Write the structure tokens for this entry.
Amino acid sequence: MATSVRATGGSAPPAAPAPGADAAPGPRRQRPSGRSGRRSTLYRLDLKAVPYLLVAPFFLTFAAFGFFPLVYTGWLSLHRVELGGVPQWKGTENYSALATSEFFWNALANTFTIGVISTVPQLLMALGLAHLLNYKLRGRAFFRVAVLAPYATSIAAATLVFAQLFNTDYGLINTVLGWAGFGAVDWESSKWPAQIAISVIVTWRWTGYNALIYLAAMQAVSQDLYEAAALDGASRWRQFLNVTIPSIRPTILFTIVVSTIGATQLFGEPMLFGGSVGISGGSGNQFQTLSLLMYEKGWVTGALGQASAIAWVMLLLLLLVGGLQALVSRSHRNRDRSRADRARTKAGS
């Protein structure tokens, strides 16, 4: 065999290592060259650092215009601060002063009542509009754009128009009431008429916006549910109550929270509606909200510490509303999960 290998010019196969002898070391791994090493480093940086660089502008903007003002306002709420003055430590005196201030409790009550009489009709009307727009109607696209037009209107323009409509002397509302045999209503100086007028402005502006949110949620509901309900003999009204409402419940809770936040921060409509006495919420503070009181304390009387305390009370109220919404959502999820478990158990048995 060895002779034939030499004759053909071939090479003999490598001999196997003897038992007990160390195996020959394999080829060494070559280190990457300088250019490939830089590419590897840049690749790792691109993989790990670039995502943080992409989200950094948001966090920097939030820190500058969101987190820092929040912390600084909380610091001011513990001091006595006047415009151009030096802050003086007062601890919780600003909060205790709010607890005994009739103006604060009046503004809190006005904020609550205006929020209720504007949010409840607004969301109910939005549900009805969304239910109508969910059907195949002629000109659906036009109606969907039309209901959003009030939201696109300026707050100042809409409020000034409604202020003319609710004018006590020559307003269209009192003219129509006179035709119907009713007396003129003092929409600006009386408490409840003024709050109703402001609530009408808020309802007119935000109903279409919430209707489109509900419409988007309704279009995501499976048509199989409606077909099954129709086979069981459910009318459209029963389908709306038993299929649509439970299916869009998370969206309804979301709009309730957002509308509550908007009602707590209500500022532009009452200020412009009141005209020269808008900041004080009318001549008798009959429609002064928490936002108006905060503005008056901070920029009219110059008590920035009290204004900061009001701002933090508003924040705590909003956190309370958010916590209640989370508890309600969790209870609904647990109830739905328990119903599903009972249905599976019944189907298995």
Notes: Confidence is low (pLDDT under 50) at residues 1-12, 20-24. The longest strand covers residues 79-80. Residues 304-348 form the longest helix (45 residues). Strands lie at 79-80, 88-89.
